[in-house]
Write a structure and sequence with these properties.
- The structure is a single chain.
- The protein is an alpha+beta fold.
- The chain has one domain.
- 17% of the residues lie in helices and 40% in strands.
- It contains 3 helices and 7 strands; from the N terminus they run βββββααββα.
- The strands form 2 sheets. The protein has a 5-stranded antiparallel β-sheet with strand order 5-4-3-6-7.
- Strand 3 and strand 4 form a beta hairpin.
- The longest helix is centred in the middle third of the chain and has 15 residues.
Length: 172
């Protein structure tokens, strides 16, 4: 028997009865795309999902915060940094925008680029988040490394910068 449970307050998860599934054919199980960090380069991306999520930081596990998470799929790779290996089409990765005054400003700028608009004409945050899903666009991905001063762990942070097709065409 399978059971659906909510493990962390954000999503329902179905716990499978694996003993009862021993005869299932693995060809009948969906193959998921890779979740990767693409190398710097130029890509055609598609927004798979955009949502507000709640989380806790390692430093303050009892404090609930919010952020906007945008999940992208790589529709095509146009160019990667010399010496880098391109990721497979349909690979996924995500970008987050903190639930702060600056975070929402960065999200707005990114969403305007993804949607190729100069203004939102009265659209709400929910309208914009919902409107991003299934949008395909050209983007330049950059990466930078940061080191946590406490743990000394190195993190790679990527930034997705939509390429304005009109500006690119007039520049060439």
């Amino acid at each position: 028997m399978n059971a659906t449970t909510n493990t962390n307050g954000t999503a329902d998860v179905t716990i499978l009865d694996l003993d009862a599934m021993m005869d299932i054919k693995m060809d009948d199980v969906e193959t998921l795309p890779d979740f990767v960090t693409p190398p710097p380069g130029v890509y055609v991306l598609k927004v798979k999902e955009a949502k507000i999520e709640k989380y806790s930081s390692r430093k303050e596990p009892t404090v609930k915060r919010q952020r906007i998470r945008v999940v992208y799929t790589v529709a095509a790779t146009k160019e990667v940094l010399a010496g880098s290996i391109p990721v497979a089409d349909d690979s996924m990765f995500s970008e987050t925008f903190m639930g702060t005054e600056d975070g929402i400003k960065f999200f707005k700028k990114s969403a305007m680029g993804i949607l190729s608009v100069d203004n939102f004409e009265g659209a709400s945050l929910k309208d914009v988040i919902d409107g991003l899903v299934d949008t395909e666009f050209d983007a330049r991905i950059t990466a930078r490394s940061t080191t946590d001063p406490d743990t000394k762990q190195v993190y790679e942070n990527i930034t997705v910068r939509p390429v304005n097709k009109a500006a690119a065409a007039s520049a060439s």
